[in-house]
Design goal:
By secondary structure, the protein is α/β, with parallel strands linked by helices. It has a single domain, classed as Transcription Regulator spoIIAA, CATH 3.30.750. 39% of the residues lie in helices and 19% in strands. A five-stranded mixed β-sheet has the order 1-2-3-4-5, sandwiched between helices. The longest helix is centred in the middle third of the chain and has 16 residues. The model has no long low-confidence stretch (mean pLDDT 89).
Length: 122
């Protein structure tokens, strides 16, 4: 049996944790996503990881399990005084977020640089 492929790559930029989904996530990946989510939540629990940027530039779509993961991760960042921004969204991914009204919760930015600026603005 092969080990599940990693879902997120984690990077740091100063006080921001950048989570990059590495593959499209439909409903069949929900178990894998739930298994990896505690690692991401723990990374946001570090004192020097205040903000969260989710960079979707490497995928074109995702399902409801990703929406729930984004909500949980953003809540963790907010609990620690941080902000969340999303970037690199394909047209389909942007539409999913707009239908779910997540675009009213966090900035949807074109680039990672814009997302980093959005979370750091006072």
């Amino acid at each position: 049996m092969t080990a599940p492929r990693k879902i997120f790559d984690l990077e740091r930029d100063g006080d921001a944790l950048i989570a990059v989904p590495l593959r499209n996530l439909g409903s069949l990946a929900e178990e894998e996503l739930q298994a990896e989510l505690p690692e991401l939540l723990q990374a946001l629990h570090q004192p020097d990881a205040r903000h969260l940027v989710l960079d979707f530039s490497r995928i074109s779509y995702f399902g409801s399990s990703m929406l729930e993961a984004v909500r949980r991760l953003a809540r963790r960042a907010h609990e620690h005084g941080g902000r969340t921004a999303l970037c690199g969204l394909s047209p389909v991914a942007r539409e999913i977020l707009e239908i779910a009204r997540f675009d009213t919760l966090w900035p949807l930015c074109e680039t990672r640089e814009e997302a980093l600026a959005a979370v750091r603005k006072g």
